[in-house]
Each structure stands twice: as C-alpha cells, then as structure tokens.
Fold this sequence. Notes:
By secondary structure, the chain is α+β, with helices and mostly antiparallel strands.
Amino acid sequence: MATIRQLVIDVLKPHEPTMLAVAEEIADLDGVDGVNATLLEMDEEVRNIKFTIEGEAIDFEAVSATVEDTGARVHSVDQVACGEYIVEDVPTAQD
C-alpha cells in the first residue's frame, strides 16, 4: 500500500474543544510532521475546519479516530498525496 504523505480533510466540530486542541492532537500522531488548520465557516452549532496534514507516513484511520475522539467528525477527504514524494499540483488550461 502506498504511503500517505499529505492529507486534506474537511472537519465539522463543536465549538469546544478548540481548533488548536484538535490540531495538536493530530500533530502528536506517529507519522505526522505538521498540521495546518483553517476555519472555513462557523455557525451557532459547529465549526467547519480544513486540516492540511503532512508527514512521512500518515495513518488515515488514526487521524479519523483522533478527530472523532475530540467530538468532531471527518466530513470529507478533499485531497490526498501518496507515494515517495508529494507531487506539485500544476495548473492546466482548464483551471
């Protein structure tokens, strides 16, 4: 199976715990080298956050379980990069 090197997920979470706390939990996982968290939308009940995760060997199941342990859930997987290295996304005429 190919190694996951980059993972972009859309997460729905309640207001607590904070986005910082969830990012720290993900960053502490084995195989994760860094995490970016961006608030996309906020309403009275939940926050919609994009997490960009990079590492040498990201375990999606561990990331998903960690997110769920915080009371949040993975809404979608928006991007994934697998293999020996991350391939740069090159714009095309259709973009």
